Amino acid sequence: MKRPREFVVIVCTLAAFLLFAPLALAVEASSGPTLPSASPPPADQEKSAHQLTTSGYQAYDKPSDVRPSTVQPAPGEKSEFEKYVSGKGPSATSLDISQFGYDLFAKPPSTFAPTLYVPVGPDYVVGPGDTIKVDVWGKFEGSWNVVVNNDGNISLPKAGVFGVTGLSFKELKELLHKNYSKYYTGFEMNVSMGPLRTIQVYVVGNAQRPGAYTISSLSTIINALFEGGGPSKTGSMRNIQVKRNGKTVVTFDLYDFLLQGDKTKDVRLMPEDVIFIPPVGPLVGIAGNVKTPAIYELKGETRLLDLVEMAGGITGIAFKGRVQVQRVENHHARTMFEGDLIDVENTPAKNFILQDGDLAKIFAVADTAKTVTIAGAVAHPGQYGVNPGVTKVSDIISLAGGVLYYTSNQAEVTRVTVTQSGPKTDIFVVDLARAMQGDPQHDVPLQMNDYLLVRTVPEWNLYRTVTLNGEVRFPGTYTFKQGETLSSVIERAGGFTGRAYLRGAMFTRERVREQQQRQIQEMVERLERELSGSGAAQIATASSPDDARMVQLELEQKKHFIAQLKTVRAKGRIALNITEMATFRGSAYDIELEQGDTITVPSDPKTVQVIGSVYNQSAFVYEQNKEYDYYVNLAGGYTSNADKGNTFVLQANGTAIKAGGSFLGFGEHLGSGDTVVVPEQIERVAWMRHIKDITQIMYQIAVTAGVLIVVF
Q1: What positions does the domain Soluble ligand binding occupy (predicted)?
Q2: Going by C-beta distance under 8 Å and a sequence separation of 6 or more, which residues neighbour residue 98?
């Protein structure tokens, strides 16, 4: 027979029986396998120069155990000055900013290497290894690919052998045309470059990866720096030197390229050039409300305004009235002084010269917005800016999109005034209709931080709904009016069908469900405190390792039991004695409806379920006037762990009775749709014997949630 589950108080088993294993296996299980130690997580990638944590300053008087390192920091590692600024070095603050520009070289160098197949400009200098393509047509024709040999010469038919090393590409084309003009007339010539040669250069000094590099003959200083990983954190970004034949031919400042896009000094390299990166110059940091907070390298005399400009200028929310500077004096101690940026361009004292190790912080403006808050029945509630003493109630109502159609004429203004004895709160009511007409007694000027509550009409609610399921003539979701009762909605739904089993009707309410859930949670929390209170002390006082393992096993069992209880969810059922409409209407059970109520009316199941500590949990055909023992015997009888004295019956109408007695005054005979619950003996578990009212708590959870908790 099909089991109609929509009407029965569903009692389900949350967990299978946990069988006790032999002591040796239990001890082994409690100790658990030894887990391999986890490998340390990878170091965090270095934050870009645009990232900044603007938290407040921390104490910087802790002793340091940091020692200088001779190893160059990798691109993802922090330099000593970065650690100093970020609070991870000796006596540092908590500002996490990075040295400017070094993250440019974090990408693979192959991404930036110039290709060998690109058009060359007229100033390209030809050298050994270059391939020259010559095409001639007209009165005579020919096509030749020649490679400049190690002597710097090329050989062409008729024109012979001649040197080209050191010539620009423009000069090469002119030379070839001139040489062929000696022998031919009436021809056209095209000269182009084939695959370009490679050259070897050296990147030395404070580079990330110093060494010799073979690069394209079109490469510039920046290309070579990318090959060498760029300057290390101890290398200069502003004084990169190119040495050729023992002389410095150019000094390149990477800041010109990064801050202004200027590559005029990014010259093309020649074979055997040396790119020397000297140690980094003086470093200063700027944090807070600038567009590019970072640590910058100084070059020459640099003032505060120069540093702000290097950082992209201040942001739109920066407060010009305060600049905090930390400075190391004579490599002995750190001091702090305050300044500002007001008229700094014309005030030399404010635009002071920076020193190595300075750290400046630009703060944000104070949050002193003059606003009022409007809430309630307006189109756009929220905060609005006001001119205190000028902006009126009608102005704010208009800014908020006007009132809604269900708005009351009354609004409430809450005003907090600062006094020397403390804040003073005043609450007064205004008439919105008169305020919108400009009545000065109600269209009052608002002050900063006023709270305007626009009320709705009394007891406003668009509509309330209740859901009817099962054996009613027209099931569905129905609206109801204030004070309407259950019988009224059932009659509107056409009344009950001929198959309706009224004894099994289930009525649930959200407010009741929330209350039941809180009660379950409180009981579970109390149990958890009682179960865990003595666990640690028992392990500490165990007389032997075996006893300690057994106590540990009990702790694991307690955690599993509590985890089961935490999954229990209340149903919110209210037990109602629903009868035919003639007697139900106006009775004590004909209760007023609330939003979200649900009633489910099943058909007669004609079954009785038996669950819990029996040998065959199942549903059996209902036989009239049979007692619970009859159905327990059909289920195979009690198990050895059954708690016979606490067997109870969950009736189809939501009430519970104790078998062999009465909780609520009912007899022992079962009805169709009832459930016989045979709990197991909780007292057989040693650690549960001393828990107060454990049986009662388990019973309450089972009745409230319709769930049978199986301990083991």
Answers
A1: 284-328, 372-403, 466-504
A2: 46, 47, 48, 49, 51, 78, 82, 294, 295
Beta bridge partners of 425: 416
Of 454, 453, 435, the residue nearest 443 (C-alpha): 435
d(CA 226, CA 228): 5
Q: How far apart are CA 190 and CA 197, in angstroms?
A: 20
More confident residue, 2 or 390: 390
Lowest-pLDDT choice from 96-110, 648-662, 696-710 = 696-710
Of 408, 428, 406, the residue nearest 417 (C-alpha): 428
Q: Give the DSSP H or E segment for 434.
A: helix 432-436
Q: Look at the chain and count its residues.
A: 712
Q: What is the largest CA-CA distance in the chain?
A: 132
User: 215 with 222: CB under 8 angstroms?
Assistant: no
| pLDDT band with cut points at 50, 70 and 90 for residue 63 | very low
Pairing of strands 333-339, 407-419: unpaired
Mean pLDDT of 411-438: 92
- State how far the Cα of 90 lies from the Cα of 84, in Å rounded to an integer: 6
274 close to 263: Cβ distance less than 8 angstroms: no
Number of H helices, E strands in the chain: 15, 32
Q: Is 63 left (phi over 0), alpha (psi -120 to 50) or beta?
A: beta
Q: Which two tokens stand for residue 28?
A: 């082994």
* Strand residue runs (E) in 28-93: none
Hunting for tokens 């140690």 — which residue is that? 279
pLDDT for residue 10: 32
Distance CA 399, CA 401 (A): 5
Query: Beta 451-456 vs 371-376: how paired, if at all?
Result: parallel
Instruction: Choose among 678, 632, 638: nearest CA to 658.
Output: 678
pLDDT digits (tens, 9 = 90+) for 355-379: 999 999 999 888 777 899 999 999 9
Main-chain dihedrals φ then ψ at residue 550, nearest 5 degrees? -65, -40
DSSP-derived 3-state class of residue 16? coil
- Rounded CA gap, 411 and 160, in Å? 104
- 3-state secondary structure at position 228: coil
Write down the pLDDT at residue 197: 77
Nearest to 327 by CA among 319, 340, 338: 338
pLDDT, position 535: 58
Q: How many other C-beta atoms can be found within 10 angstroms of the C-beta atom of residue 152?
A: 15
One DSSP character per residue, 145-200 reads EEE--TTSEEEETTTEEEE-TT-BHHHHHHHHHHHHHTT--SEEEEEEE-SPPEEE
Q: How far does CA 46 lie from the centroid of its chain?
A: 20
What is the per-residue pLDDT for 712?
40
Q: What share of the chain is helix, strand, coil (3-state, %, to 5)?
A: 25, 30, 50
Task: Show the tokens assigned to 263.
Answer: 């590559």
DSSP state of 563: H
Confidence grade of residue 1 (pLDDT, cut at 50, 70, 90): very low
Burial of 692 by CB count in 10 Å (0-12 exposed, 13-18 middle, 19+ buried)?
exposed
pLDDT band at 11 (very low <50, low <70, confident <90, very high): very low
Backbone angles phi, psi at 180, to 5 degrees: -75, -25
Q: How large a percentage of the chain has pLDDT more than 90?
A: 35
Distance from C-alpha of 676 to C-alpha of 610, rounded to nearest angstrom: 5
* Mean pLDDT estimate for the chain: 79
